[in-house]
Amino acid sequence: MSSQKSCPKCGKLNVIKNKYCINCRFQFEENDFIEFEIVENLKTSLYGSLICISIFVAFMVLVTVAIIFEYGLFGTISIVIIWPITIGFIVWASR
Fold this sequence. Notes:
By secondary structure, the protein is mostly helical. It is 61% helix and 6% strand. It has helices spanning 31-71, 77-93; strands at 4-6, 13-15.
């Protein structure tokens, strides 16, 4: 994401938060740049959340399989504890 914007009148680079061009004093419209920044931040956090959830679910699958191999049929009892926690985390993280 760029932290600068170009003036449409003179072409000079300005900081995104500037209301006026530092070269020609052209007044910028604020809404175009702020909305873009918010959308980009949401996109980044969404991808990060999806990656985090995927890693967590993969880890919980490995833990479940390891417990069942180690403890056999008694290990299946752990599924009643592990997977509601996993599903709860997914629901919480997706909000």
